[in-house]
Design brief:
The chain is 25% helix and 33% strand. It is an alpha+beta fold.
């Protein structure tokens, strides 16, 4: 049997995966946490969306975080009051939310509470520390939000770039 080019096989798997997600989405098995109604209970949220990627204590109650990073471009924060009722649902991967980050004030815990775990972590030559990168969609353009965190865990700056698309080529 002749070998198929890697890109062709990869494309076939992506097509099958996309069809499966579409079918599940139509049948109601895949749903978006942004549809949670204010006043819903914690148990209702867990029953509908499963275990969150993070469960964070807040001064007002609790935050259930549903992240689709690293492959996806969404992070949903569902905030509950002390009674375990939904008070707000926020899509964290927006430029409005990124604007809330305060360099030289925010720490790692603040970034994690706001955006969850990053899609990528790395370092750059021009900065002594880690760079956390989050993927998001800006009106159809794939972008990344970068948070520069120094060795003491303090946010020093942020940056937005367009995401570089990596394409496989036939070998």
């Amino acid at each position: 049997m002749p070998k198929q080019p890697v890109a062709l096989v990869h494309t076939a798997y992506l097509a099958i995966f996309s069809i499966a997600i579409s079918v599940l989405g139509v049948s109601g098995c895949v749903s978006s946490p942004d549809r949670v109604a204010a006043g819903a209970s914690r148990d209702d949220v867990l029953r509908s969306y499963g275990t969150p990627t993070a469960d964070i204590r807040t001064p007002a109650g609790e935050r259930l975080q549903y992240s689709r990073q690293p492959a996806g471009q969404q992070v949903y924060n569902i905030d509950l009051n002390a009674d375990g009722k939904v008070v707000s649902v926020t899509q964290a991967m927006t430029e409005a939310q990124f604007a809330l980050v305060q360099p030289d004030v925010w720490r790692v815990a603040d970034v994690t509470r706001a955006f969850g775990k990053p899609a990528l972590t790395g370092q750059v030559y021009s900065f002594k520390g880690d760079v956390w990168s989050y993927r998001y969609d800006y009106f159809g353009t794939k972008k990344q939000f970068h948070v520069f965190i120094d060795a003491q865990g303090l946010v020093r700056r942020t940056q937005v770039t367009e995401e570089i698309e990596v394409r496989h080529r036939d070998l």
